[in-house]
Write the structure tokens for this entry.
Amino acid sequence: MNDERSAIPPVPTSTPTDRHTISRRGFVACATAAAGLAGLLEMKREAQANAGARAPISPRESIKITKLETFILRNSWVFVKLSTDAGITGWGEMLKDKSKTCAAGAHQVESYLIGKDPRNVVQHWQAIYRHAFYRGGAVLTAVVSGIDQALWDIKGKALGVPVYELLGGPTRDKIRVYGSSDDVTRGRAKACKISPRAQGRAAYKYVESPAFVQQVAKDFAALREKLGPEVDIAVDFHGAVQPQTAALLIKALEPYQPFFIEEPVQCQNVDVLADLARKTHIPIATGERVFTKWGFREILEKRAASILQPDVCYAGGITELRLIAGMAEAYYIPIAPHNPQGPCSLAASCQIAAAIPNFLIQERGTSTHENLLKVPFKAENGYLPLPKGPGLGIEIDEDKLRAQVGEPQGYPQTYDRDDGSVVDW
Ligand SMILES: [Mg+2]
């Protein structure tokens, strides 16, 4: 590994008992006596403005959550922001497909969080998840995921270190990302993911014709020829292919060695996925619709996939992805975090990538999230650098984010071209 890590500042060692140290809040308190109310307010504003600086408070000072806000953007991304009385804020992201419900779900636990110390991250994960009584489901896990990211963000900022430092990292020098085949041809990535399409559409019929299957294989062979054998090309069936056709497509693609086949079928029946995995030597990846350690337990135990793709925005956040990675390590299985969403999603995923030993590759997502950041991500030669900033390592441009707040997108609607029946997308 290179020596870039030396740029990461150490955890501060000063405490409130240090003889010559005065805390930020202590300084504000002293000033109260000397200055009038106007002066105090001005100093408090200044202190809050500086709160994003590294280790803005001592680890022993108290912090309390004072406010929970949610933001739904017109592209359906949904954010949760936690504010504290120390002036430190934390950001997290939830599930865009259920943005309105997730925002409401976050406010449902608002009364629990207000007044609590945000640094007890695992305790809050347990309380939010287990006190809900009715466990699991995309909405509850998305709510706990977004809040978990925000809590880790605050904890990292309070200590002045990236989250991965608190998880025992770093475990690598940089983070491999994949994009589209266009990204590969433009030199922005050395791995990509494509969809199996032919005849101008995705595979959705229970048994697709030989013409359809052969066209998918032919197109993949042409792409392999164009990009070369050094490039990793994954194929995402998106859970929209029926098992009968999935088996045909996987067999037809095998000679060209796809990087992995993602979600060859829906994952609600894990045994069906396991059957397909047993029939091929190509790695099977899944996880973007699997939630928490309990969901991934079944995938692992049934050997239904050999690459896991949990999403940090709804599989349970940073806390849960670290545990899922540990479970997967016992099966020699790597993690390739799913990410079609915004800046918190990519930032939190990068913290995981930097902290676990069994990381494969990161889905970079769209570049539109760069519009929401003060300093955008910058991938080079197919890798993102390790985040250096405290917490999640990003700074949300709140003005830009608020400008994009609006009515989220509706669900895509897809139907069989021949008989109009509903098909997966
Ligand atoms: Mg996918």
Remarks:
- The domain at 168-388 is CATH 3.20.20.120 (TIM Barrel).
- Residues 236, 238, 262-263, 288 surround magnesium ion (CB under 6 Å).
- Residues 1-37, 43-53 have pLDDT under 50 and may be disordered.
